[in-house]
Structures are given as structure tokens and as C-alpha cells.
Design goal:
Elements lengths: L13 H13 L5 H8 L6 H10 L4 E9 L5 E9 L1 H10 L1 H14 L8
Helix pairs in contact: 1-3, 1-5, 4-5
Length: 116
């Protein structure tokens, strides 16, 4: 099995990166507009944060889809999610990693509720 993904620690825009990972771990629809609606954080660096997580080993899949932008206009943008089979393999190989992911969602998922 490959090395486990790394959690974001000390970097610029750490709040943004943690919010993206919390959305992905929760299984939320994750595109730049949903991210903004759920967090009130700017969309400007969203794709950079996703790329950082991908480079850190998170099994992120993507494809284009249609969504509504911040003005309610239809837009085509990339939709991101975690590969559930790969994540399940990580969890099976290391139950402590699953517990850490759940703790991460609990701790950093609160930013997802701030916009509500």
C-alpha cells in the first residue's frame, strides 16, 4: 500500500486548505461555488488548495459539471471528491487513520457551518 495522505499543517492559507479537506472528507459536493456558499471564504485560491491536497497524497478525483455561481448563474466548473475505494483501503490498512480523518472532520468542519 502506498503512503498515507498527509494532513495540512503549517502553510499559507491553512484555514482554506483545511476547509476543502473537511468538505471532501464529509463527502460534500465540492466545487468552488459550493465551497464559497458553505464557508464564505473566497473562491480565488480554491483550486490551488485542492492541488495542494492532491500533492499531499489525497486520492482526489475530478470532472466538470454544471452548477450555479455566486450570482445564481449556471457555470461549468470542476467538481472534486475523494476516491471512496482508495479511502476505504487506507481505512482498512490503518484504522487509526480513519479515526484521525473523523477527528479532523469534527474539528475543522465547523468552518463549513459559519455561512449558515
Amino acid at each position: 500500500m502506498s503512503q498515507l495522505p498527509r494532513f495540512p499543517t503549517q502553510e499559507r492559507f491553512i484555514t482554506h486548505t483545511r476547509a476543502v479537506l473537511a468538505m471532501l472528507l464529509r463527502g460534500d459536493a465540492c466545487d468552488q461555488f459550493a465551497y464559497h456558499r458553505n464557508t464564505s471564504l473566497p473562491v480565488a485560491d480554491f483550486r490551488t488548495r485542492v492541488s495542494e491536497l492532491y500533492r499531499a497524497g489525497w486520492p482526489i478525483d475530478r470532472e466538470f459539471h454544471l452548477t450555479l455561481d455566486t450570482n445564481g448563474e449556471p457555470r461549468r466548473c470542476k467538481h472534486y471528491w475523494l476516491d471512496s475505494e482508495q479511502l476505504a483501503a487506507y481505512y482498512a490498512a490503518d484504522p487509526a487513520f480513519k479515526a484521525r480523518c473523523e477527528a479532523f472532520m469534527h474539528k475543522h468542519g465547523e468552518i463549513l457551518c459559519r455561512a449558515s
